[in-house]
Structures are given as structure tokens and as C-alpha cells.
Write a structure and sequence with these properties.
Layout: E1 8-11, E2 16-20, H1 48-56, E3 66-68, H2 90-93, E4 100-107, E5 117-122, E6 128-133, E7 136-141, E8 148-151, E9 164-171, E10 189-194, E11 197-211, E12 215-226, E13 232-241, E14 247-257, E15 261-272, E16 285-293, E17 296-305, E18 310-313, E19 317-320, E20 323-324, E21 327-332, H3 345-358, E22 362-365, H4 372-381, E23 384-388, H5 396-409, E24 415-422, H6 430-446, E25 452-456, E26 471-475, H7 482-489, E27 494-501, H8 533-542, E28 548-552, H9 584-593, E29 599-602, E30 614-621, E31 625-630, E32 633-639, E33 646-651, E34 656-663, E35 666-674, E36 681-686, E37 690-691, E38 698-706, E39 719-726, E40 728-734, E41 748-750, E42 755-762, E43 767-775, E44 778-787
Parallel strand pairs: 21-22, 21-28, 22-23, 23-24, 24-25, 25-26, 26-27, 27-28, 37-44
Antiparallel strand pairs: 1-10, 2-3, 2-4, 4-9, 5-8, 5-10, 6-7, 6-9, 11-12, 12-15, 13-14, 13-16, 16-17, 18-19, 19-20, 29-30, 30-33, 31-32, 31-34, 34-35, 36-38, 38-42, 39-41, 39-43, 40-42, 43-44
Helix pairs in contact: 3-4, 5-6
The structure holds beta-D-galactopyranose.
Residues 422-423, 457, 475, 499, 502, 527, 552, 560 line the site of beta-D-galactopyranose.
Pfam family, one: Glyco_hydro_2_C
Domain Glycosyl hydrolases family 2 sugar binding: 99-191
InterPro entries: Beta-gal/glucu_dom_sf, DUF4982, GalA-like, Galactose-bd-like_sf, GH, GH2_Domain-Containing, Glyco_hydro2_dom5, Glyco_hydro_2
């Protein structure tokens, strides 16, 4: 490692060892103790474990450590079991065991690294974690959804002092939520080095008190920390760059940085004719804070920001840059097929892109703060965010988690609402209102520019609970039209559809099947509190005071297999399945959320044995009229209902059923379902053809089973084997089947209703990656990806 610049922040994800299981660590560890599992001291690799166990009474067996890179989720590597005693729960683990695991990493620092500030940042560890460095107990963290950092400067070894060992115990036996939470160090880890005089991490706060297309005022607070034992006169130069990388303003301010303390500096900039940030035009600026002492640069800290204004109105909803904008949102948990919660950045982006293609302009990170990169991507691609605190909790740890979230996220233009809690038991109670007020005040103190909210499912209008936040969230407000009735009674209240629909459907399934755990895409098995997307959306468009919807959910997730239990292991609420394959309801959202003409019909057209029977064909479209054609014969034309769907009763015959969408009498969109023959071949549809050779970039490859004519066989369930050769590896597989117990970390996967997914991860060395998919009785498929 070389340390030449003022600040070095480097990924610390590589070369970790992992042990799945518990290891007893003696409590009375003296500071600086050498040897033992928390340290490596002068003991040679390979010997240290034996000595540690014999000397410290930790057992004699030689443990086997696996080598891996972060992010990592050990939960997804387990086998499904229906056994709570093994730590397997339906919700938090999706019937996969949790447990305890240890991570360990050894590294060296050069002698000249001494005298600098060194810290390690964990962006998220699922479970309660304990960190030791070189035998020193550094800290414990409860709360798997927000990052934490430790200053390691004193306990690290530099140059000849020896190697460093960082040991992390993760206890994931308890759970924080009722959805799949994963286990382990599932987000990035960073090692950061600065001068003793530096900008504090998340130490800039950039607001735009004025933001019009004529002019913007950019207000920047910068916190600096001086860890020298003498006070210093410093200068802070802040430069602002536009999206093209051109410097548009720069200003310096002098300050006196008190010794061993923090100093806050304030600067105001005027930007003429700024380009405003919005989902359609996600234009970003960058502030570079350069800290100088004695004419030399001691720190350089970058903050990306956007110029935009937000406003909420009790009658008309949300305004972005003074333009009304309906919030078209989805709620999402963070897991994905093949990886559990350990998503490479590129998969986070893939998920967000799929949501954007559906027409969504907003994302609710249910029910916790998202990974930091998710917000960077939302800023960049244009996606509004309801950023969420994990719990109604004003204990020291609860407040600390909230503060860390707001300090971390308050410069993101995408973030428009701080959501402080979701469906807590204490909603509507006196105690609940007190706790919520503390959270709301804490939030406003750190960021007064965004409204606070609570996503409630009961207790509205009781004990002043929802009055302590700015926006009242209605989870399933459609029930008895309680949101509409509340608007009449409390006309000044800001409202939002914080959670809507909960429509349980299984991709490609058209009949409820309680034994196998499938719900029909016709929506015939939805929970009592849920409704179909049509109702959720039409309530919104007919009542602009509802501000927007957050559909539960964009993607299926592991756990919460409502309305079923085992053998079902994941949820059915998604507009897409766990692989991001669209369900029919995805196309409904696309029809009402997007303007580009589209038409979609359901079901598929493979119903052997149903010849002569009636089948309901539904069509979603945003055109003016749709005509349905069966084997060349018109079944009639219907005018499109802008918030509903069209329906035909069709006497089934195999062949082709086609929907034609027209505007002004012209065909602008069409889609057909064709009766497919027997499975004959595999086809691969990579999302991209080239990856970045960074050891992380992941290309999702969609895999379909086709008949001889090239039509997807919508009932196929063939098992596919993947062979990946060259500069990449198979990171995981999935198929969206909510009852599949096949492992996601495997080389084989069945297609489910015609489709499965393979995740191909680029290696750090450039080259080509050959992905081959084979299956008994089917023609194989191959695709060559480049890794540049
Ligand atoms: C809500 C809850 C979500 C999820 C959903 C299922 O009540 O906030 O986390 O459980 O119901 O419909």
C-alpha cells in the first residue's frame, strides 16, 4: 500500500477468511495481548490457531477458514430447513439457518503510515458484530442496516511493528425484521486514512435554499476535526464543479481549528442558470473541499449534490422544482436471487434500472436505511427515495442509528422524505408519540430541509401520534377509505400512500395452488389488508392529496411467504420476482406509469386439455383502444380504461392470441402469446455483453427454455447446468419460484415457468467469459462476454 495523497479511502473487501460457527473469546482480554484468535502477534500463519486454543482454552479442534471477498451473506449459502431450533425462521431468514460466523483479515502497513488517522468503516453487518484489532476489543454494533466506523490509529502496527489482524464476530441468531435479513458482512468495508487535521466523515452538509432555473444558492457547512495537540490556522477552499466536470465557483475561508476538537465552517455560493435535478434529468454537481495548513493541502473531500427544491401540499401532493409530480413508488427489501443481501453494486443498479423501466420514479427502502451505493445510483439515474429508519426507538442506540443515517444521506438529491418508523406496535399511543417526537426533532435538527413521516397501519388520529411528523403515511389506507376520510376531517394534513396493494401473485401461474404455494396472476388470493394495483393506483389519481403510492413491493423477497408457509420460502408481493422477471402486474404499472405506447396480455397460451373452454384474457395498455385477435380472427376492440384493465372471455384454442394497441386509429403497440411446443433449446439473454474487470461487476443472464420455433415454453421446468470459463465466475442462480428449495449458490437451476437467472461476476483480470448452459434433451446455449 502507498499513501501519497491527503486522504485515502480504499475498499477493504478482499482477502478475508470466514469461519461459520461459534468460537469462544475470553472476556478478560488485556489490551495489546499478542497471540490468540483476536491477534496474530509474532506467531506464524498456520500456528496461531493451535496456540490460541491451547493457551486460551478455546478448544483444540483446528478450524477451517474459507477465503472470500466481501460483500458476503452466509445465510444464502445454507440449506432450507423448517426448524427454528437451527435458527431458521420464515420471515427473517426465509427458512435458512442464521447462526454465528467469524471474519478475519490480516494486513500490513508501512512505517510511514504511523502518525496518520486510520479508520475502518463497515457499511452494514447483518447481526450483532464485535470487532477486535490486534487483540484490542474495538467495538460492538447492534443494527444491521446502518454503517459504523472505528478509529484504529492507536492500535494498528506500522512497519516493523508487525502485521495487523482484524477479527469480526457476527451473531445473527436474533432478528431485527420480519423479512429476510441475511447474515454477515454483507456491505462494503473501507479502510480510510487522513491527516490528523481533516474533514469529518459525512462532514459536509449541502443545501440549496434557492433553486430555480435562473439561480441557485448553495449553502455548504463543512466540519473539520483537528486531532493535533495544538490549535491551527487553516484555510478551506471549496470548489464547485458542474456535471461536465467544469469548475463553476470556488471560495476560500480562513478558520482557527481548535486543538483536539471540531470546527464548523459555512460558505454560500451562487450558481447562475443551474441545471435542476429531477428523475428525468438527474443532473449532479460536485463540491470539492480542500483543507490547507501552512500552504500545504492536508485533506481533499468530495461531495456529490444536486440542485432542486421539494414541497408537499395538503391538497395537491408533491412538487419537485415547483412542478407537480405524482410519486410512483415501490417499497423494496434489499435481497436478490443468487446473492441474498450481498449485492455487488452492479446488481443494485440492475434492480433500480428494472424499476425505472417499469415507470417508477420513487423507491422506499423498506424498512431500514439502504446501502450507500443505492443512493449514489438513485442520484445518478433519477429515482426519488423515501429513506427509512429501522425502528421507533429513541434509546441511545436507536438515536445513534437514526443520526448516522441522516448524516450519511442528507446530501443526496434523491432523498426527499425521512421515514422514521413502519407499523410499530406503539403507533397511536402516548409513549409512541413521545418516542416519535424525539426521532422527528433529532431529524429536523440535523436536516430541516426534508419532511419526516411515519408509515402507519393503525393509530392515526390518536394521542397526537402522527402530528409529530410532517407527513402521515398510510399503509393500506384504501381499507374503508380511511385515508380519504381523514383528508376530509384533517384537510391540512400532508399524506402519502406509504404502502399500497400487497398483491400476492406468482410469476407465470394462473391458478392458486396452496400445496405448492403459488398464487394466481389473476389476483384471486390476496391478503385481507391488500388490494389489487388497480385500486391502489386509481385511489391515487382520483385524490391528488394522497401524494403518491409506494407499491408493496417492486421485487419478491425471501421470507414472509404470505399467504402460505413452508414449503413456500419467499414472498409473492413483487411486481417482479426475486430474479427481476416481470409478473403481469409489472405491465399494469408500466401502462399507468409510462407514456410510451405498450400493450400486455395474460395468461400465456399453453392450455392443453382446455380446448373449447372459456379463458379470461386480460390486457393492460396505455393506448386508446385495444383489439384482441385469436388466430387471425378479431375478438373485438375495447376502449382502454386508464386505471383499469380490459377483459375478454375467450374460448380457448391453441395458436396465437394477439393484442393490438392503437392511438388515433394507428397501431402503436402489439404483443402476442403463442402456444409453444415441447422444450427443445436453451437461450441466453445477457443484460450486457461487457463487464468491467474489477472482480465485482456482475452481469445478469436471463435463461429461457424455448420450443423448436423459438417460443418460450411458459410451463417448462427443465434443469439447466451452467459452465463458466475464463475471466469470470458464476456468482449465483435463481428462478423466482417461491417454493424452490434449490440452492442459489450452485451450478444448476431449474427454469420456473420457462425462465431462470444466472449471475456472472467478472474477475479482476480482463479477458473473455464463456457462459454455457446445458440440459439433458435440450440444445445447449453459449454466450461470450467480454471483461474489459
Ligand atoms: C405491511 C408491512 C410490510 C409487509 C407487508 C405485507 O404491513 O409493513 O413489511 O409485511 O405488510 O403485506
Amino acid at each position: 500500500m502507498r499513501f501519497e495523497t491527503a486522504r485515502n479511502k480504499r475498499l477493504f473487501d478482499e482477502n478475508w477468511s470466514f469461519y461459520k460457527g461459534d468460537i469462544r473469546i475470553p472476556h478478560a482480554v488485556k489490551a495489546g495481548m499478542t497471540g490468540g484468535i483476536t491477534d496474530c502477534g509474532s506467531i506464524r500463519e498456520g500456528e496461531w490457531l493451535e496456540i490460541a486454543f491451547n493457551d486460551k482454552g478455546m478448544g483444540k479442534e483446528q478450524l477451517e477458514w474459507a477465503s472470500l471477498s466481501l460483500p458476503h451473506d452466509w445465510c444464502v449459502e445454507q440449506q432450507y430447513v423448517q426448524d427454528e431450533s437451527l435458527g431458521s425462521r420464515d420471515g427473517s431468514h426465509g427458512y435458512l439457518p442464521g447462526g454465528i460466523g467469524f471474519y478475519r483479515k490480516s494486513f500490513e502497513l508501512p512505517a510511514e503510515a504511523a502518525g496518520r488517522k486510520w479508520s475502518v468503516t463497515f457499511d452494514g453487518v447483518s447481526g450483532t458484530s464485535t470487532v477486535w484489532v490486534n487483540g484490542h476489543l474495538i467495538g460492538e454494533n447492534r443494527g444491521g442496516y446502518i454503517g459504523f466506523a472505528y478509529d484504529l490509529s492507536d492500535v494498528l502496527r506500522y512497519g516493523d511493528e508487525g502485521r495487523n489482524v482484524i477479527l469480526v464476530k457476527v451473531d445473527a441468531t436474533e432478528c431485527e425484521g420480519w423479512w429476510y435479513e441475511g447474515c454477515g458482512i454483507y456491505r462494503h468495508v473501507w479502510l480510510e486514512e487522513t491527516d490528523l487535521l481533516h474533514v469529518v466523515e459525512y462532514g459536509t452538509y449541502i443545501t440549496t435554499p434557492e433553486a430555480t432555473t435562473q439561480q441557485a444558492l448553495v449553502h455548504i457547512h463543512t466540519r473539520i476535526h483537528n486531532d493535533y495537540t495544538e490549535s491551527r490556522s487553516v484555510s478551506l477552499l471549496t470548489e464547485i464543479y458542474n456535471g461536465a466536470g467544469v469548475q463553476i465557483c470556488a471560495k476560500s475561508v480562513q478558520a482557527y481549528a481548535d486543538w483536539y476538537g471540531e470546527t464548523e465552517l459555512e460558505q454560500m455560493f451562487q450558481v447562475d442558470q443551474p441545471t435542476l435535478w429531477s428523475p428525468d434529468s438527474p443532473y449532479l454537481y460536485k463540491a470539492v473541499s480542500i483543507l490547507e495548513y501552512n500552504g500545504a493541502e492536508v485533506d481533499r473531500y468530495e461531495t456529490v449534490f444536486g440542485i432542486r427544491s421539494i414541497r408537499f401540499d395538503a391538497d395537491e401532493g408533491f412538487f419537485l422544482n415547483e412542478e407537480p409530480l405524482i410519486i410512483k413508488g415501490t417499497c423494496n427489501h434489499q435481497d436478490f436471487a443468487g446473492v441474498g443481501v450481498a449485492l455487488p453494486n452492479s446488481l443494485i443498479e440492475y434492480k433500480l434500472r428494472l424499476l425505472k423501466e417499469m415507470g417508477a420514479n420513487a423507491y422506499r427502502s423498506a424498512h431500514h436505511p439502504p446501502t450507500p451505493e443505492l443512493l449514489d445510483i438513485c442520484d445518478r439515474i433519477g429515482m426519488l427515495v423515501m429513506d427509512e429508519n429501522r425502528k421507533l426507538d429513541s434509546s441511545p442506540n436507536g438515536l445513534s442509528q437514526l443520526k448516522r443515517m441522516i448524516l450519511r444521506d442528507r446530501n443526496h438529491p434523491s432523498v426527499i422524505i425521512w421515514n422514521l418508523e413502519n407499523e410499530e406496535v406503539l403507533e397511536g399511543t402516548v409513549t409512541g408519540a413521545r418516542i416519535l417526537k424525539t426521532l422527528a426533532d433529532t431529524t429536523r435538527k440535523i436536516d430541516p430541509t426534508r419532511p419526516t413521516s411515519a408509515a402507519m397501519n393503525h393509530g392515526w388520529n390518536e394521542n397526537g401520534y402522527n402530528d409529530v411528523v410532517d407527513i402521515t403515511g398510510y399503509n393500506y389506507g384504501h381499507r374503508d377509505h380511511l385515508d380519504i376520510r381523514d383528508h376530509e376531517q384533517y384537510p391540512d394534513r400532508l399524506m402519502i400512500g406509504s404502502e399500497c396493494a400487497s398483491y400476492t401473485v406468482t410469476r407465470g401461474t394462473y391458478e392458486d395452488d396452496p400445496v405448492r404455494g403459488y398464487c394466481s396472476e389473476y389476483g384471486t388470493n390476496i391478503p385481507s389488508w391488500g388490494c389489487n394495483p388497480q385500486q391502489a393506483w386509481s385511489d391515487m389519481v382520483n385524490h391528488r392529496f394522497l401524494t403518491g403510492v409506494f407499491m408493496w413491493t417492486g421485487f419478491d423477497y425471501r421470507g414472509e411467504p404470505t399467504p402460505y408457509q413452508w414449503p413456500c420460502v419467499n414472498s409473492h408481493f413483487g411486481l417482479m420476482d426475486t430474479c427481476g422477471f416481470p409478473k403481469d402486474s409489472y405491465y399494469y404499472m408500466q401502462a399507468v406509469w409510462k407514456d410510451e405506447p405498450m400493450v400486455h396480455l395474460l395468461p400465456h397460451w399453453n392450455w392443453p386439455g382446455s380446448e373449447g373452454k372459456r379463458i379470461e384474457v386480460r390486457v393492460f395498455s396505455n393506448t386508446e383502444t385495444v383489439e384482441l385477435i385469436l388466430n387471425g380472427r378479431s375478438l373485438g376492440q375495447q376502449a382502454v380504461d386508464r386505471t383499469g384493465y380490459l377483459s375478454w372471455e375467450v374460448i380457448y384454442e391453441p395458436g396465437e392470441i394477439k393484442a393490438i394497441g392503437r392511438r388515433g386509429g394507428l397501431t402503436v403497440a402489439e404483443k402476442a402469446a403463442v402456444t409453444a411446443g415441447q422444450p427443445v433449446q436453451i437461450r441466453l439473454y445477457p443484460d450486457r455483453l461487457a463487464a468491467s474487470a474489477d472482480g465485482s461487476d456482475t452481469i445478469p443472464v436471463r435463461v429461457a427454455v424455448l420450443d423448436g420455433q423459438g417460443h418460450v415454453v411458459p410451463t417448462a421446468d427443465n434443469e439447466i447446468r451452467f459452465e463458466v470459463v475464463g475471466a469470470g465466475q458464476l456468482l449465483g442462480v435463481g428462478n423466482g419460484n417461491p417454493s424452490s428449495h434449490e440452492p442459489d449458490k450452485a451450478e444448476v437451476r431449474r427454469v420456473f415457468n420457462g425462465w431462470c437467472l444466472a449471475l456472472i461476476q467478472a474477475s479482476a483480470e480482463a479477458g473473455t467469459i464463456t457462459v454455457r448452459a446445458v440440459s439433458t434433451g435440450l440444445a445447449a446455449a453459449e454466450v461470450v462476454l467480454s471483461n474489459l
